[in-house]
Amino acid sequence: MSALIELRDGRSHIGIAPALGGGIAFFNALKPDGTAPVLRGWDGSDRPFALACNVLVPFSNRISGGGFPFEGDFIKVPCNIEGQEFPVHGDGFQRAWDVEDSATTFARLSLREGAIGPFRYEALLDYRLEDGRLDCRLTIVNTGPRLPFGGGFHPWFHRLSGTRLAFDAGGIWLADERHLPSKHLSLRDAQEFDFTVPRPLPDDLINNAFTQWRGGAQVLQPKHGLKVQVNAPDMDVAIVFSRGRGADVFCFEPVNHIVDAANQPGQPGLVPLSTGQSMELAVSLGWDGCGS
Asked: For the CA atoms of 157, 174, 140, 73, what is the dihedral angle to 10 degrees?
């Protein structure tokens, strides 16, 4: 079992797994009536996707076609997960991060040699706990050739019989059988995907990027007496994933670009960084009590 860094204040208890991509292992609310899980808890295995939250760097989701065009070159990016057709979520979640500093409510991790395909980068990951809210900040520094960077965060939530999700967005990318974007719709024309008012997740598979996201979301978990808040005001894409009604988890992923953005016109959301340039991505996760 990988060693954890534990953060704790009077309202939350959080575990960080430096050896497993620097992700969150567990996030528990310390309520007056007992402990409740804000995120799905880690099972103790060495599988990064068994964590409560993964860090996505230097890109989010899939890149199709073996790579992408960029400034007159074709940038090849290899697959990084066995059995997958495309590279997924970069390599940061697969690497061990170093612990630079830690205290009761703060931890700083670093990744000094991030590398997938031609991407070369360093990253800093700050976790800060305040009044039960966890603030996560990812700083990416390009140490290689000029390339378009992106990323985000990949929280896993329990999917229970009473779970409801709410967030405000403007559009949605429909996806093909390979989970690549196929058609963009305004949510005015796709009311079945409108989560402006809290609603259950669909009975069938959902694996879609929502665009023009306003940067906030709520996950209502009445069985645990929790209302979970997600805030990422500097990111405008949210990816929602769940396998369907029989699944016990779902993901709400704040990211800064759509799926396969590297192969979309204009590479929307990706940030071209020259050597030495940097970018930041941040999300906060907090909770309040809610009734059943």
From this structure: 150
- Whole-angstrom Cα distance, residue 190 to residue 192? 5
In angstroms, the CA 175 to CA 120 distance is 30
Could you give the CA distance from residue 73 to residue 142 in angstroms, rounded to a whole number?
A: 18
CB-based contact 40:241 (threshold 8 Å) = no
Strand (E) positions, 106-224? 106-116, 119-130, 133-142, 147-149, 152-158, 164-167, 171-175, 181-186, 206-211, 216-221
Q: Count the neighbouring beta carbons within 10 Å of the beta carbon of residue 225.
A: 17
Q: Are 207 and 253 in contact (CB under 8 A)?
A: no
Is the whole-model pTM more than 0.85? yes
**Parts of the chain with a pLDDT under 70:** 1-2, 291-292
* Spatial separation of the C-alpha atoms in residues 217 and 166, rounded to whole Å: 6
- Whether the CB-CB separation of 34 and 23 falls below 8 Å is answered with no
* CA–CA dist 177, 157 (Å, integer): 24
Dig out the tokens for 22 from the structure: 């620097």
Nearest to 250 by CA among 155, 184, 178, 173: 155
Q: Which residue has the tokens 């209302």?
A: 227
Q: What percent of the chain has pLDDT over 90?
A: 96
Phi, psi torsion values for 195, nearest 5 degrees: -105, 25
What CATH number was assigned to the domain covering residues 5-160+247-289? 2.70.98.10
